[in-house]
Design brief:
61 residues, mainly alpha, 89% helix, elongated
Length: 61
């Protein structure tokens, strides 16, 4: 049991050594890209919601 746990940790450490972590500029660039996309999606959905709400209000009035 102890050998298998030790072996699992050893293999996990070897796999972690293969990981290429992003640099600080890459993280910053990805963050900015995500924020831009999210902002446009929020604005688009707000516009669609406003149009749909106005349409339903006009129909019901």
């Amino acid at each position: 049991m102890k050998n298998s746990v030790s072996n699992a940790f050893r293999q996990a450490k070897l796999e972690l050594a293969k990981v290429i972590f992003p640099t600080k500029p890459q993280v910053k660039q990805a963050f900015i890209a995500v924020m831009i996309v999210v902002t446009f999606m929020v604005l688009f959905l707000a516009l669609v919601d406003f149009i749909m709400s106005s349409t339903v209000s006009a129909i019901l009035s």
